[in-house]
Amino acid sequence: MEMNLKTIPLGVIGVVLAAAGAVGYSLVPERLWLVALLEGSALLCLGMFVVVHFSGLKTFSTRRSTRVGANSLLMILLFFGILVIVNFLAARHSIRWDLSENQNFTLAPQTYRVLRSLPREVTVTVFTREKDPGYQSYKERLDSYRQASSKISVEFVDPERQPKIAQQYGITRTDTAVFESAGHSVRVNAPSEVELTGALIRVSQDSKKRVLFLEGHGEPSLDDRERTGLSAAREILFKQGYDVGTLSLLKEAAVPDHTAILVVAGPRRPVTAEEQERIHTYVEKGGHLLLLIDPDTPADMNPLLKRWGLGLGPGVLVDLQDRLAQGDLTSLLVRTFTEHEITQDLSAA
After folding, report:
1. Within its chain, how far is the Cα of 162 from the centroid?
2. 172 forms bridges with which residues in the sheet?
3. Is the pTM of this model over 0.85?
4. What's CA 145's distance to the chain center, in Å?
5. What DSSP character marks residue 207?
6. Alpha helices in the chain (DSSP H)
7. What DSSP character marks residue 33?
8. Across the chain, which distance is largest between two alpha carbons, in Å?
9. pLDDT tens figures, 83-100
10. Are 192 and 108 in contact (CB under 8 A)?
């Protein structure tokens, strides 16, 4: 029985589409719809080819030479099957080694914790060109993010070649990354790990944790950009996904219930007994308190601390043997940390 030459291309096309699907999955595993389309089309073409040529294939398979050749064909198919499986596993469970001297491509433990705890999918669209200074940094860092979490998908867009997409996002400068998740959107303009991880935190949170700084006692201002100001602390907290504000317990009767942490930073005047009582009530209800008290100031917090068996002693710690202090003996430089929950992440910070 002669084979229908008109339908032979179906078999060839089916094989090509199947190979294209396997290659496509190894190159762009995030575009599963494209891989499914290619493999589905391949199955359809090969199925039609088998149906049309079923009788001819059945007769051909009964020949002795066919049985001998079938063994060779089986080995070839087995080899390619193993190759496809290896590529599949490599795409799903790829391993990377950072051999750079300063571990430039190794993410911080804090970033890994954020990636492991992502509650939902996050899409990152990077508007940059290969000639832009941030292109390579974005690519290398976001590749590391994508390797660490299957919930991260990344797409690079050249605003010159795809101006409509850039206009749709309102992009006015290159090297801009847009993080999107569940209707939330956050933009960053620098490919640093701090910026990228901060954007991940902000875009994946349904509500922000509130950090309040006590005011009314001469504390440094959150808007002060001088060395003694707290503007840098506010910016870092914002990048970590916190909502930062101030609180005056001289005006408010209590610390708001939704406050994640109350910070008392460098008061220059006494914190009244009434205020300390309100702080005590907040902590006893499960609130968190951070005290940053300068030495030799009238801000006596010991009445509050004594209720928990704590206290601030007089004097200042000095290090008489540390040569790196360069004359300032009160600059305590800590090189190593003992094992404790409080300091377990400081070595990598």
Report:
1. 26
2. none
3. no
4. 6
5. S
6. 8-27, 32-52, 54-61, 64-92, 109-116, 135-148, 163-169, 193-204, 231-239, 273-284, 302-305
7. H
8. 105
9. 554 555 455 445 455 445
10. no
Amino acid at 340: H
What are the structure tokens assigned to 111, written together?
């970033």
Under a CB-based contact definition with an 8 Å cutoff, are residues 210 and 258 in contact? Answer: yes
CA 321 to chain centre: 41
Residue 67 burial (CB count, 10 A): 10
| Residue 301 near residue 279, CB atoms below 8 Å | no
Could you give all domains of the chain from N- to C-terminal order, each with its CATH number? Answer: 5-92 (no CATH), 109-204 (3.40.30.10), 209-315 (3.40.50)
* Token digits of residue 101: 């001297």
d(CA 46, CA 30): 26
pLDDT band at 10 (very low <50, low <70, confident <90, very high): low
pLDDT in tens, 127-161: 999 999 999 999 999 999 998 899 999 999 999 99
Instruction: Report the b/e string of 19-42 with b at 16+ CB within 10 A.
Output: ebbbebbbeebeeeeebeebbebb
Residue 289: closest CA among 317, 270, 308, 272: 308
Q: What are 188's strand-pairing partners?
A: 177
Collapse the DSSP code of 133 into the 3-class scheme (helix H, G, I; strand E, B; otherwise coil) and give the result. Answer: coil
